[in-house]
Write a structure and sequence with these properties.
The complex is a heterodimer of chains A (143) and B (447).
Chain A lengths: L5 H8 L12 E7 L4 E10 L2 E10 L2 H14 L4 H15 L9 H4 L12 H19 L6
Antiparallel strand pairs in A: 1-2, 2-3
Chain B lengths: L20 H9 L7 E2 L3 E2 L1 E2 L10 H14 L9 H20 L7 E4 L2 H21 L15 E5 L8 H10 L2 E5 L12 H4 L4 E7 L11 H10 L3 E5 L11 H4 L3 E5 L10 E5 L1 H6 L10 E5 L2 E4 L13 H15 L7 H21 L4 E4 L10 E6 L4 H10 L2 E2 L1 E3 L4 H6 L5 E5 L6 H18 L1
Parallel strand pairs in B: 3-15, 5-6, 5-7, 7-8, 8-9
Antiparallel strand pairs in B: 1-2, 4-10, 9-10, 11-12, 13-14, 14-17, 16-17
The chains are: A alpha+beta (143), B alpha/beta (447).
Chain lengths: 143, 447
């Protein structure tokens, strides 16, 4: 099944950056009411760079793999680059399979392209990304 | 086919037999959708009848026939077509009522069981408001005072939980609940502590849509009546799968849905004892449910009309009539539901036996088939239900994954999500075996 590419299973089994860490600037809790997937996600910034994303993801392999890919793609990069990657992930996932994603932008994230053909799983893949952008929006402005 | 000693005998006490292979094949031939393939040409294995059932040709034909030859607005005309439509609609009501052992005037048509339960909850808050404002007569049984109690259970489907939560917010009543034991039964040890003279209504499921648990309805109804409370039953997973006589169970009100019993969407049922329905204020109001209307105020028709505002879903009711006839005829002399029960119980036994052999699968709910309806939910070690369902889907097997609109029950049992197999009269032993084969594949993908 191309939905469960080796890369996805790898990320789900050994997720990058899993666990909740301190310090953090903002923390959010998101759920998918249809299935009970939940994620608690914290974001920490160093100026305009994402210093860390830490999370506790209770859910399916797709949601866990996506959280792992998120960590890999945004930590150490500028916030606006992280938001651009989010937009690219979202576009790929909602494309119904017409957008295979750009490996240069998405890295291992292109392995999630298969999710686009299973509309019921798109929310799983987007859960941690929605939590990430929500958390960014809640980081207190520097005085 | 042998059954292990852990499951109940295949033949229930009533003596009804499960379907033979030839009979199941004949049943399946009546359901056009079962000839479908899915996901790369795999035969559809439909094991989600708990969510909605598939429809036999007779139901589809009946609905179409109504539109082609008898369609007119029910209760609204004096012309021939209107007479025919009205007769067809009222005949459907009588058929559904007979199916659950009740007289026709005790059955109300709604949109679905969720609406039926909302209707009952709103009867309480409307009566309470009438009494508080002095604007209309209200029956004491439906008037709630702050501190009065509404009792449900921790295993309820959201449709038999959320409306009661909202009722408490509207009236100041307190929501209480019976818990669930680790093996999926209602915790009856606390029944006499949870119920009290402040209890005005007890609402429980008949068969859990997750655990399959059959609750001791007669005992619960008696306990409710001892404290002067009304008893409301969610019969969504019982009426479509076993012979049910609602008046004989001692309950006051019961909700079930047409689409879960081979009928169309858009028709739900509320059964209520005649004098209870008479005591309840209407929910949706407007045309059809009135007796007299003046600008200053209106009076209402007697039940069941009182609860049927607007143009009725006549075609869908006619389709449901055909579903009732179809189910009844699945056994000689109208014993269809007893045979459906026997057939599905044997499938449940086959699945429970097979899953019992897999140490990495944990079935939730009662161990024995005699205590269960046609539903089996389980967790697979280290694999989220979503992923289980995805691999099964790839094999053409349709199950439900998640919390099945019973989120508090899942929290109570300490699981985020489960995979649910729910049977219908058209399922086969081979389909049970396909699930087991599919689970082995799940394990190999995610190990």
């Amino acid at each position: 099944m191309d939905l469960y590419a080796e890369l996805i299973l790898e990320h789900a089994k050994r997720p990058h950056g899993a666990g909740l860490r301190e310090p953090f600037a903002a923390e959010v809790h998101h759920v998918n009411p249809t299935c009970g997937d939940e994620v608690t996600l914290r974001v920490d910034l160093d100026g305009d760079v994402v210093r860390d994303v830490s999370y506790d993801a209770l859910g399916c392999s797709i949601s866990r793999a996506s959280a792992s890919v998120l960590h890999e793609l945004v930590v150490g990069h500028r916030v606006e680059d992280g938001l651009a990657v989010h937009a690219a992930v979202r576009a790929m996932l909602t494309s119904r399979g017409t957008d295979a994603g750009d490996e240069d932008v998405l890295g291992d994230g292109v392995a999630l392209a298969g999710v686009a053909r299973y509309p019921a799983r798109v929310k799983c893949a987007l859960l941690s990304w929605m939590a990430f952008t929500d958390a960014l929006g809640r980081v207190p402005a520097e005085g | 086919m042998t059954l292990s000693s852990t499951s109940a005998p295949a033949v229930p006490a009533r003596g009804a037999q499960p379907f033979t292979d030839a009979e199941v094949a004949a049943v399946r031939a009546e359901f056009p959708i079962l000839a479908r393939t899915v996901r790369d040409g795999r035969p559809l294995v439909y094991l989600d009848s708990g969510a909605t059932s598939q429809k036999p040709r007779a139901v589809l034909d009946a609905e179409r026939d109504f539109y082609e030859r008898h369609n007119a607005a029910v209760h609204r005309g004096a012309h021939q077509l209107a007479e025919e439509a009205t007769d067809a609609y009222e005949a459907a009501r009588a058929a559904v009522a007979g199916f659950v052992g009740a007289p026709a005037e005790e059955v109300v048509f709604t949109k679905n069981a969720t609406e039926s339960l909302n209707l009952v909850a709103h009867a309480f808050s409307s009566a309470t408001a009438y009494r508080a404002l002095g604007t209309a007569e209200a029956d004491d049984r439906f008037v709630l005072r702050p501190g009065d109690e509404v009792v449900v259970t921790e295993m309820e489907h959201h449709a038999n939980l959320v409306p009661w939560q909202e009722l408490c917010r509207r009236t100041g009543a307190t929501l209480r609940w019976l818990g669930v034991t680790d093996d999926g039964h209602l915790d009856l040890a606390v029944l006499d502590r949870v119920l009290s003279p402040r209890t005005r209504v007890l609402a429980t499921t008949h068969v859990s849509n997750v655990l399959g648990t059959i609750t001791p309805v007669a005992e619960l109804a008696a306990a409710a009546h001892r404290v002067g409370a009304l008893f409301v039953l969610d019969a969504c997973q019982s009426v479509p799968h076993l012979p049910v006589d609602l008046p004989a169970l001692g309950v006051d009100l019961a909700a079930f849905s047409g689409h879960k019993m081979l009928g169309p969407y858009g028709v739900g049922l509320l059964w209520g004892r005649a004098e209870v329905l008479d005591a309840m204020p209407p929910f949706l109001t407007g045309g059809s449910m009135i007796e007299t209307v003046r600008m200053e105020g209106s009076t209402y028709a007697p039940a069941p009309q009182k609860f049927e505002a607007g143009v009725p879903m006549a075609a869908q009711a006619v389709g449901l009539h055909a579903a009732v006839d179809h189910l009844t005829a699945l056994g000689a002399d109208g014993t269809g539901m007893a045979r459906v029960e026997a057939h599905e119980r044997r499938l449940v036994g086959r699945l429970l036996d097979a899953l019992g052999e897999l140490p990495w699968v944990r079935v939730l709910g009662p161990a024995g088939t005699a205590e269960r309806g046609a539903v089996v939910s389980f967790v697979v070690d280290d694999v989220h239900a979503h992923d289980v369902g995805q691999v099964l889907d790839d094999e053409g097997i349709a199950v439900r994954v998640g919390h099945h609109c019973a989120w508090p029950l899942h929290r109570r049992l300490g699981v985020a999500a489960t995979t649910r197999v729910s049977f219908g009269p058209y399922n086969t032993a081979a389909e049970v075996d396909a699930v087991v084969t599919g689970l082995h594949r799940v394990r190999s993908v995610f190990a």
